[in-house]
Amino acid sequence: MATKEGSLEAPRRESLDWRNPDFHDAAAVNAELARVFDICHGCRRCVSLCQAFPTLFDLVDESDTMEVDGVSAADYGKVVDHCYLCDLCAETKCPYLPPHEWAVDFPHLMLRAKAARFRDPSAKTRWRDRLITSTGPLFKAAALPGAAQLANAAAGNAALRKLGARVAGIHADAPTPKFTARTFSSETGDEVGAHLDARASATTTGRVAIYATCYGEHEAAASADLVAVLNHNHIPVRVLKGAACCGMPKFELGDLASVAKLMEKNLPRFLDAIGDGYDLMSIIPSCTLMYRQELPLMFPENADVARVAERFFDPFEYLSARAREGLTATDFQTPLGKVAYHAACHQRVQGFGQRTREFLAAMPGTEVAFIERCSGHDGTYAVKAETHGHAMKIARPVVNRVRQAQADAYGSDCPMAGHMIAHGLADGSQATHPISMVRKAYGI
Fold first, then answer.
1. 315 and 335 share a domain?
2. How many domains does the chain contain in total?
3. Collapsing DSSP states into helix, strand and coil, what is residue 242?
4. How many CB atoms lie within 10 A of CB 356?
């Protein structure tokens, strides 16, 4: 029987059998890496997405056979190290995703390799990687009185940054978060706009519980703008205080046991909110993706996880769904002019379309220059000394597009991507989250 080239069937992501001992077996992992690498070598359509594919193809092209069988299995990890699980290859490029018989899911194979390495005592995961993926404790510590000022001062000190590069492997020029003791949760009540008359739509309850997330707590302005925009649209808001990290940093590390523990901490809060008639929302696309896709694939048998996934929304997906039924305010007061808008990778792969772009473009006096390419930040990738240069290279086309747009404002649904673009521009400008643009347009 001939093997079909590509597939016309709708692609699907299959569940992760991560609790099966074979999932972490080094020999089985290497065999699957070799199989998939050979398919990727014959295709090469993902070469421009990230550094993982050029690394793979260089290894093949520089081998004696110029095929995958000429690449040492010891070098497979070089490819894995450059995958930050953006999912773009699987969701936007690959023709061999299931149900195709080749069943290629490159990012989930990279995850499997990371998980196997994390479980391997001989691999010795660096303490730096364990630290920078512990965003919950790290960000909470930075919010303690005096800690935020010290962390920000250290981040701005060239000598300390060079020391950090030598001792901890944090690149001296990498963009780092700006910490504050005045976090979103500490500055916001438990219920905001409770007096508003919530109106349900076909797919939404008209009441939103905001999962602030580790990063969203310190992106307090954007998180507060989200509350203001929702309230302006007569949507009451509950702030889910004390929630744990979504687990994406540990997921990218391959520490799946920690991901499971974090999920177990958050599920009761989420289920309580759903039970009270609230939908769930996050300002960070990666956190939304965890609960809408990655955790359901890790726990396909868990009805609670499925229930949370069903009620989790992206802000602009939510507003757009309600706009189609005339439930979104259109009283815009301030034209935004030209906006350079970057679509975040972890938003793009959720499959609900270009809702942010559409919402912004529908506002009077607003022109959108759309940028659909990875920003290069990708969680910890842009921070590490060994990958920061690659991250800046990946970011360069996005930065150039923003520069060429000569826009009145620029930004991304992912605050980290926005900071990466600002870092690349290096002109003193700051990115603006699209929800903050909408608040400005409403004049609230």
1. no
2. 4
3. coil
4. 29
Whether the CA torsion 343, 349, 350, 353 is positive or negative: it is: positive
Cα-based distances in Å from 11 to 93, 94, 103, 290, 297: 11, 9, 10, 19, 15
Q: Does residue 392 lie in a domain region?
A: yes
Q: Do 118 and 134 belong together in one domain?
A: no
Q: pLDDT value at position 4?
A: 62
176 contacts: CB under 8 Å, gap ≥ 6: 155, 170, 383
3-state secondary structure of 338: strand
Contacts with 440 (C-beta within 8 Å, 6 or more apart), sequence order: 334, 336
The Cβ of residue 268 has, within 10 Å, a number of other Cβ atoms equal to 10
Residue 313 lies inside a defined structural domain of this protein: yes
Question: Residues 294-334: pLDDT tens digits?
Answer: 999 999 999 999 999 999 999 999 999 999 999 999 999 99
Question: With contact defined as beta carbons under 8 Å apart, do 129 and 253 qualify?
Answer: yes
Q: Estimate the crossing angle of helix 147-155 against helix 135-142, to 10 degrees.
A: 110
